[in-house]
Amino acid sequence: MLSTGALRAHLLAARLAGPVATTRERSLRRYRLFAARDPRVLLGIEPDGDWSLAELLCLMGERCGVSRDPGHVSGPEVIDPERTIEALDAFAARLGEAAAAGAPVLIGTGHPHRLLGFYAALAAALSSAGCPVLTPAQGRSVDITTRFGVRTYQLGYERGVALVREPGAREPGSEPGVHSHSPLPVRLALAGAARAGWGLPRLVIGDHGWVCGAGQLGFEAMGLADADDPAPFVGQAEGRLSVVVPLDDTVRSEYYQPLTRYVLNRACLSQ
Q1: Which InterPro entries does the annotation name (predicted)?
Q2: Rounded distance between C-alpha atoms, residue 88 and residue 79, angstroms
Q3: Stated pTM of the model
Q4: Which of 66, 99, 144, 257 has its CB 3.0 to 4.6 Å from that of 129, i.e. a possible disulfide?
């Protein structure tokens, strides 16, 4: 089993925590957009509070370990590895509870190029433990507003993990899916599950719009988030998300493998 010390060393070496690739400038820009309730950064969360920039800095300092000083305006963002490990422990505990209960789960990612392997391993372990891993509304179209205008994508699944992809993008060697912040895919999946009699998930796992959109609708949701994405942490603070793990969500996909082993071992699940 990967020790806590070895995990901490890996987080720092892989720049999953500590000084990360996310810049302070990007974080502050997105915090300001969130404070202005810009839908591009809300990720499906409809905050109860007003959440000023000062309040967001305080929250993100508490949950991620970023600087709370508004005068700190440049350089790499910093995530406290101790907060990452603490959240991974909570994530693993909830995963183990879901597995013990045989709870149906829905897993989705807006970062398929980086995080698909992490989530797919969770899906396989939960399925082996007797949890139904739901895959509703597969192939359904969803229109998502992007910086290039409204684009039509298809809801798909890779190894039990929901994602969106370009229509007709399943040729050999094609990318598994596209990067997305939108909560629309999870709404489509949940509506499809209800209509088709799949049964609704008791737990939604993922990132971006997948967890924020599900949490906003009242489903228990937990997942991963970078320091420049305040929405999941606000959702957690307001009681819509149960666990949010702070880490860089854009490093090489293989760098998440030790986290997978750590979480599954802590949850008493085999990979």
Answers
A1: Phosphatase_SCO2771
A2: 14
A3: 0.96
A4: 99
